Amino acid sequence: MNEHNDSIQLRSNEELTNFRKKHFLPTAGFYHKEPIQLVKAQDTYVWDSEGKRYLDAIGGIVCISAGHNHPKIKKALIEAIESDAIQHTSLLYLNQAPIETAERLLEEAPYGMDKVSFTNSGSEANELAIMAARHATGETMVVNVRHSYHGGTSAALASCGHSIWRFKGQPVTGVTSALEPYCYRCPFKQKPDSCDLECAKNVETTIQNSTHGKIAAFILEPVMGVGGFITPPDDYFREVARIVHSYGGKYISDEVQTGAGRGGSDLLLTKTLDIDADMVTMAKGLGNGAPVGAVLMKSEVAETMTGKTYFNTFAGDPLQMIQSKLTLEIIKEEQLVENARAMGDLLKDGFSQLQKKHPLIGDVRGRGLLLGIELVKDPQTKEPASDEALRLMDLCKDKGLLVGKGGQFGNVFRIAPPLTINREQVNFILETLDQSLSELSDAYTP
């Protein structure tokens, strides 16, 4: 048993699983055939209830940016609690912590964004951005992209491009979907070298044919997370922003997963890609695991909300803001954006080499430490290898590596480790994946 748990009486995995089955909603499964109970974490590693260590290559579902339990964050939170610092205030009262976090965010904001609003999650951030766009324009229609995901609240989920996330009673009025900028499975049957950005032009066609000619907003992730880290071409964003603005809409850049330096270039990919966005939403890596979201907004959008009240009970709470502020500081001080780029390049190159060896790998894509490996049964037909993905995840887990999955058919490995990952750990990921792919191939060979 891990020494961390010597004084804690842990319930068995079976007991926890049975309770969840009996009393939790039947909407969330497990990543593995035999679930593991995670009890401890430090930097890039997590430990289960049996004391086994794993490299966390999904970063707490793309949340851990500065590393699990960073000593600077731990020290600050302990000091705040021991000094009886106020834990909850709401923005109805003044407090220094949300101001300091906002200052650091605005230092990294894309040009023209000078307003900040905090939330508790990415879903809430996108909900606020959509509401602000509708209020500012006087229009209701939001254009999303198939395969996208923007959260579990009403307006955000209405723009979800995956049937498994959608519920029968989920209202989907006031939204329409453009075709996806999915190069590996291009809906226009194009190749990157012959592409004429038909996917971007389709946004205009969608507006012309599925709206009355004016829209409230267009929303898209720079890298489509739940969709399987789909990575649109760079030129796509500029063309779409031009189209969106020409039809009166506001461009919402959803950086819930891509933000906080994970893209390996700037704190926000919106800035790197020079996306002419009106709002940027964040969460996940912003709080390094704390329930924090944010919306960066241009004044021209924010000022239209004058005279209205928007209130979020827990947004801007001091302890969450302390953690977010320090996360942003650590990312800068420890040059984690640069590390995300360097380690991401090594991983991507390594995955591309594995692709030549293992036909199960159909596509390798992503930016920085947001990397997707799409698994297919046949490189020619591109039939999704969903069952193989689950088996491969278990093989990796058995060797001490945790990865995520996504995509319409659950056949895309999602690699998003903490931004603190080093070269030795990159090599471990590549070697473990190589070995597991070989074992899987042997198991499926007649």
TrEMBL record:
Lineage: superkingdom: Bacteria
CDD domains: OAT_like
Keywords linked to the UniProt accession: Aminotransferase, Lyase, Pyridoxal phosphate, Transferase, Transit peptide
Cofactor: pyridoxal 5'-phosphate
Keyword Lyase: yes
Summary of subunit composition and partner proteins: Homotetramer.
Family: Belongs to the class-III pyridoxal-phosphate-dependent aminotransferase family.
Protein name, entry field: alanine--glyoxylate transaminase
Gene name of the record: dgdA
